[in-house]
Amino acid sequence: MQFDSISAFFAMGGYGFYVWLSYGVSALLLVLLVINSKLRNKTIKKHIAQKQKREQKLRQAAKQQAQDTTKNIDQSSEKTHQDSDAKEVLS
Amino acid sequence: MWKWLHPYANPEVTYHFTGKLIPWFKYLSLALLSVGLVWALAFAPADYQQGDSFRIFYIHVPAASLSMGIYFGMAIAAFSSLVWQLKLADASAAAMAPVGAVFTAIALFTGAAWGKPMWGTWWVWDARLTSELILLFLYLGVIALHNAFEDKNLAGKAAGILTLVGVINLPIIKYSVEWWNTLHQGSTVSKLGKPSMSLDMLWPFLFTFFGFAFLVAVIVCIRFRTEILARNSMRPWVKSLVLAESK
Known about the structure:
The complex is a heterodimer. Chain A is mostly helical. In chain A, about 90% of the residues lie in helices and about 0% in strands. Chain A has helices at about 5-10, 15-90. The interface of A and B includes residues 12, 49 and 51 of A.
């Protein structure tokens, strides 16, 4: 240990302000960088997951629509058959 | 060697490999930094001329040499991306730029805080300080270019060219203290040959230097994996990985 007391340690032989400023700002910048890196990782993952869920929903909706339209076509074609039957009976 | 390296051009393999590396780097960095910083602050001797202000050295010099080392790594990545069209090299260059910028800022700031009590001024426009400031602007330019284009291949190309042009700045920073008269002192730790500092100052320096180096490795790995995910978001392996984690 180079220092006799805690206060001498913080004083750094008169250079305390500059030494602690350097160490403090460096630590702050590094902590901010680490937090930013982790946050970016999380948000990218979230974005990809959200996009995927949206795509799944869209795909499901498209499927549903396709089923509905085919049903409609079937129904309408049945109707025309019935109409033509009716016409035949009338004539 | 190419056979051995080949699988690492596959983003999925690299993603999982770097994921396994992160904890090792993290604990090494934590151990080295906690020992090194306590040693540097409390146990290393004060300099006979500069007194306790010399303790800034243990952050300033590692940060400055890493700021140049990261730039060199980024230049190698940019070169291999431009020549061999390695997409992962682009991702790694984009991951390194912000880390290098922060270490350059730390080197500049601690240099200023060391210069004030030793030289009587926070800043002078001399060769070493100015060229290091230019390094910061190069990093900021590279980051800006990576974010400027929606098309990541185009962005990588533009940023890569700027990176390679900026390599000329590295020898200027390194030798500026020898080529020009400057306030900045000459190098204390010569890498080849005998270091000109006493061992009880050199040891804590080596601890903090490698501690910061492994910290760089951790952060670059995290950012690199983020870049891989962002650039491969349409691949099935990314989709299943992200969905599995979000549940």
